[in-house]
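Aim 2 progress. For beta-glucosidase, the working sequence is reproduced below.
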Amino acid sequence: MTTPHPFLEAPTGATAEPSVLRNIVAARAARTLLLGALLCAWSSCQRAAVATTAAPAVSTISSSPTSAASSALPPAVVSERVAALLAQMTLEEKIGQMTQLANTVINPTGVQRDVALDSAKLVPLIRDFHVGSFLNGEAVPPTQWVKYSAALQRIAMRESRLHIPIIYGIDHMHGASYVAGTAIFPHNLNLGASFNPEFARQTARATVLESADLGHHWVFAPVLDLGVNTYWPRVYETYGEDPLVASVMGAAFVRELQENKEIAPYKVAACGKHFLGYSDPRNGWDRTNAMISDQRLQEFFRPSFQAAMDAGLKTIMINSGLINGEPVHSSKAILTDLLRRQMGFKGVAVTDWEDIIRLVRVQKTAANEKEATYMAIEAGVDMAMTPYTTNFCRYVKELVQEGRLTEERINLSAGRVLQLKDELGLFENPMPRTDRLNRIGDPALKLLALDAARESVVLLKNEQNTLPLAPGKVKRLLVVGPSADSRANLAGGWTLAWQGRPEAEYPKDVLTIYAALKKEYPGAQVQSIPYRDAAGKLSLTSISAAARTADAVVLAIGERPYTEGLGNTSDLTLPDDQQQLVRTVQATGKPNVLVVVGGRPSIIRSVAEKSSAIIWGGLPGFGGGQAIAEIISGKVNPSAKLSFTYPQFAGHISPYHHDNNENSLDLSDFGAGFENRGPKFKPAMLTEYGEGLSYTSFKYSNLQLSDSVLSGNGKVRATVQVTNTGRRAGKEAVLWFLTDEVGRITRPVRLLKHFEKQEFKPGESREMVFEIQPLPHLSYPNAQGQPQLEDGYFTLRVGDQTKRFRYAGPAATTRSTDGQKGSGSQP
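Predicted structure tokens for this construct:
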């Protein structure tokens, strides 16, 4: 049995008060024998609950009647310590553990960026409501975070009858982005374009190294949604539109964040979000309805979450929207039948911001907040991010007293929250520490973020080898556009604050694209003209004049920072003023490099044709300006490939893994005269998924299969020769796609099944290998998540090479679709 809450020895440098901790330990020592007896009673209850819970039947992910029997939820698996604690706790104390409040309710000003504590506000929340978790803030210096976290924990442990520490959650989305001076990595959409899972791991490592000592125990990342709808304002938070890439990247992030040993004695929990189907709203707007079939949920939206769970994911955050008209926060089919029964998740399921009250105010599926609370708890919610009031505590208590919820149901969720705190070592090490603050802002971590940016920026077009612009040949370079001299635009939302901060508040050592180009071309005259003057008018005349005297012009266009609903849009078309800017420069006839900065693809069809070169910069983080400049100069050879399908037309959303019936329009059945009317094929994309240019060239040749027929549980070994046929070293992401030619349901035109990135010297040739197996690579799930493996022909594609083979028999065993494991393949 684990010794209950040993606080006697705080970690080196911890900001604890020894007298307080000694008193706590003394009180706990007196209760040790009592805990043992209570533990036995609790364990017996848990075994009885398991014995009386019927084995769940496999079910589809659709609406199911809400059951009043809380035993329908799988029992929580808790440690002896947690079981003993629960046995001592009152109902109110358990409900408090299920409650999460924002930092605004405990700071002096009620403003997120005020990371300070008002003890008069905090004490009653702990003493009377037993609140177990707080969240967020904004980027402040590490010392301020330590002071805040230490005061928070001291008061929490003093006022809590059982001295239970707080777990603090924070939105560190691409590095420790709510701590001043840290390494800010590219957002996930960029990392997906790198096709290098190591960068997902390094992002997680930097996050914990620069925040774990500050009292940040719970990181609300990674985003495991699929970026299939490019209108969605959070698409940049995803690893792209492919489920395999999202699975591999997400699992790499989770493992590093939760298993990192450099932050000992601390541990940090990841939070996979947003479970599930959140990223494909029908109208593209945040927190709205998605129309997704059960089968598509299983095949496309489940795998990334399953892979993260297989990697040990401790918590998930729930989809704020609806699926087929049902709010996910009240869906027992999703939060219990799928999440707990099918996928085997044992961790904490937390709501997103105000999402229980959203059932009443926005989604109109509950008459009042109390009813919404009942619906959410019965569906499977463990913790409510309320985040401003304690109404949740009152309503849950009333629901138990009325018999609508059982205390056993509350035990499940409170037990999961306490178990999370136990696994993170918070009972032993709740206090932040000051002796390792020197590693926050470590230049080595910022260099890793720069490397990630270098491999995540995509060269989309390079007409007549416009790029690279060799520094020795460029004498005058003009850099214009809204993103030319902006640090904020490079980093996007969730940087320093929820929606970013005003430009003047970003670190001055972060190079903008303009500043980086000045550094990259020391012998040239590098000029930037604001594209709007002081009165807000376009500076087209002065820009045109400067462009005519320049050797080349870099046009840095794009979006300002945003996230969530504030980023909703009905038109992705590049704004008119930016189109005017680009056309003005292009009219001069000078070589122009279009750099697209932003969290989603701006429609640039009107200006793409006359662009000499196009770079998709995305949101490359604080190293993005330098990375883009180095790609323009040729110091860095671009190696990224798009992690999404770049549309050519506004309103055209078609991920690369679309169904066959989206691929073409067959008019021949309508009779003579109709054959040549209208487009016979889908509109061409500006750039397809997985495409990206390099300053060298790669040749794919000699694709071979070890057998043309695969049967039973056998394997087929596929090999292809990849050769760097250019004059400089380069990295190439080798992407292996499979097409199921005929299926009982229409199948995607292709699906990525394996990827691997390698560096090749000039002239170097290497054999790349992919081992094809029936269940992980040839099957697809039905609506219940059961694999379907059908006889028939498949086509393998890698580069410009294709091979056809046949699967000739069912596998001897079956599996559930438990995600994809490994670094770049299934499973």
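The chain has three domains: 18-435, 457-633, 696-827. This observation will guide construct design in the next reporting period.
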